[in-house]
């Protein structure tokens, strides 16, 4: 049934394209021709410009041209294509159905693209499908897209999915989960992020330490101090210093002072010095 | 490097750079991404540096000031920079890696004008971008950031460009005393100090159909926001950015389309005021602009070869000389179309280089152009006059948390004539965008989310005042006794905690000075009414009570009215009660008929192979499809169906004229109707009269902008 719906969607779009392969000038200057030319350029910014111009263009053939962009390699293209489709609610409804079907499938690239589309649509109704997909064995990139979509939707009820992402096997997913946790609306304590401070991936530690700066998680202080003192990534040390400043515990004084005076990187020293001023 | 021989050598006595020993140039890697809109600020390509050129001629000596020689800056991109008033340091916005935001850095210079060491960071939140830094008085740096001043709130997201909006921030050089400014609904970019101590900047005015970048002023403590240039019919293009003061009352700025021009365009010389009856008057309506590059397109059409576009301009002159009618400018310029689509299709980026531009002759003298970099923002490395330090605005005296808003005389307006006695109250409306859990649109109109903050009676001396939430975008409407807006303010305004934003009138003559003395107006004779409450409480589930309405959720608040009192006739069956139109897609001849229908069913129109709407039949009937400019989109419309609701203009909406609301001031009076002598609908056809609550909801819906969604029916509105 789902496959049939998907095929039907693309068939309708393709048929419309055959019928109307000519300009339909839009109120803002967009047209079928400019969209097709932009797609032919394969340049993400040109595509974005063309679709933004055609925001309100009534152009059935354009739908047929834009839908394949949901499977473009470049996230920016997928995002703007989904944004354009979101202006066409019935097309969006079909894409939602297709995306949920893809999340129920086994193809990681399709799952990634589906998650990106659902994230751009920003409807919390997609959260159950996204949550379930996180257990389906997709690759790290797809799982990262799933978690990112939950953060983009921003609904507080997505927190449980994000926290599961924090414990995921893939580093991309864990890093995306740290950012998504921070992106959710509402207030929360930040405690789950502390689990990422010992992560073996520097990108994950960067994301986690940066996000932790917003929460002042007192229990994370020892781990943050270790990172300030010895993490090989200067951006992790910088972020950890900032987070310690937000916690403001005087027990961090020695660590921060040593960093402020001795770290090899100037901006890390600056952040440590600023954090020292915030200690109680 | 482009070799230009002796061009630009500083041996001429009238050379405006003859007293400039060196200039600083920002060299960035060329890019096609993230600069398609003049407000975008997050583009990143590693490889930027600050270069000193001494003397500032094509044969000058280059020195790398920052930062490839310093550990930790290998992947740096630099978004913007500023030189301190004593020319002993540089503040810049740098991004250290692709996955981290832009942050602020301070580079100290030694006596030779070289880097004294690696730059230090000015610590800001590592989850947020900090861009466009400029030096301000008192060792402060003013910048733009997507950090949010309101705890727990998400930053606004522009619904068109989809970027997180940038707002004002200020911080001391050591990273202390961070202050975040009040929020506009869209981006604010390109700040610059003026000598009087104010900050001029570009504001994206994106409210309903308004979608343009105008120049604004704000004090350095982010109070006293005022218009500067671009509106009231004096502007010459859609957007203005990278403005720089030439001398008091005179600026140069880049004037261009909002998008597709790589954030470059014309250079215009703007006088911010003019002589009126022998008196110098400042304000948008008194401003005038002189186009210094008339061949450059003001829109986003591709430019011609040798015409190109200008990225920025900075006025220069010999020491002791004055700026004349014609300006000499350090500019960054690129040849060719400098238009995103044209260049993007060719797969090439524009090549900005630094030139000295003589506006009297329209001539460019090359100074530096590396084909492999964008050479932009050339600035003299020399001391300049520091701005005056404006005293912080005094607190409003009523609340340390709230913004005080009000007017001395609501009838004092340069935009409208209001009949005496016609304004009975001022309506205060909060704006928000999709970051609160909405899909990409709020309905069929262009208008953003709306919530009623409150309505304030206009007092007998025509004054009004209220305490409202600080830091949020607000627009105002003056309202008559029928509850209908007489005029909608077409831009968002905002103010800080404890600020007093007391105006002379309702968009009064900007040349007037507004000074309010204690006891001068009735509105401030006692503590003004307070509408300040937390965001989470700025919603209501009591839209059936006249005075409890905040948002107007279409399906929850309006549809029950239609269901109870309208759909008996307005049911989608063609006839006298339900006009029909037929849409024909010109290209194919396919057509579809649509009939007026106030039911709550989800409906659509398929035109040209594309469905529109997916809102309810009632929303589509009242706000579209006639409002969608279908004739501009290759759709022929036959039949007659008017636009029943004019967004933000209830009084000129057919729906409101038909239902003919009664007066609600000074008391609810059904014998006094908006359309005098006309029996209100649906009573005129034997239907049931609308209640006071129902009139209120329908009027607010129209005056808000005709949105389908509000906080009360947000699909993702389960928490904030």
Q: How is the topology of this model organized?
A:
The complex is a heterodimer of chains A (280) and B (720).
Chain A: H1 2-19, H2 32-41, H3 44-53, H4 60-66, H5 75-86, H6 89-103, H7 108-121, H8 127-133, H9 140-153, H10 159-166, H11 171-183, H12 202-212, H13 221-230, H14 234-247, H15 253-262, H16 266-277
Chain B: E1 23-28, E2 49-54, E3 61-66, E4 77-83, E5 89-95, E6 103-108, E7 120-122, E8 130-136, E9 140-145, E10 167-172, E11 179-180, E12 188-193, E13 198-207, E14 210-219, E15 226-229, E16 239-247, E17 250-256, E18 266-271, E19 273-276, E20 279-282, E21 288-291, E22 309-316, E23 328-334, H1 340-346, E24 353-358, E25 363-368, E26 374-380, E27 403-407, E28 425-432, E29 449-457, E30 464-468, E31 474-479, E32 485-488, E33 500-503, E34 529-530, H2 554-565, E35 580-585, E36 591-595, E37 602-607, E38 610-616, H3 617-623, E39 635-639, H4 654-659, E40 662-663, E41 669-673, H5 692-704
Parallel strand pairs in B: 27-33, 30-34
Antiparallel strand pairs in B: 1-2, 1-26, 2-3, 4-5, 5-6, 6-7, 8-9, 9-10, 10-11, 12-13, 13-14, 14-15, 16-17, 17-18, 18-21, 19-20, 22-23, 23-24, 24-25, 27-30, 28-29, 28-31, 31-32, 35-36, 35-39, 37-38, 40-41
Which features would summarize this protein structure in a list?
heterodimer, A: 280 residues, mainly alpha, 16 helices, 66% helix, 0% strand, disordered N terminus, B: 720 residues, mainly beta, 4-stranded antiparallel β-sheet, globular
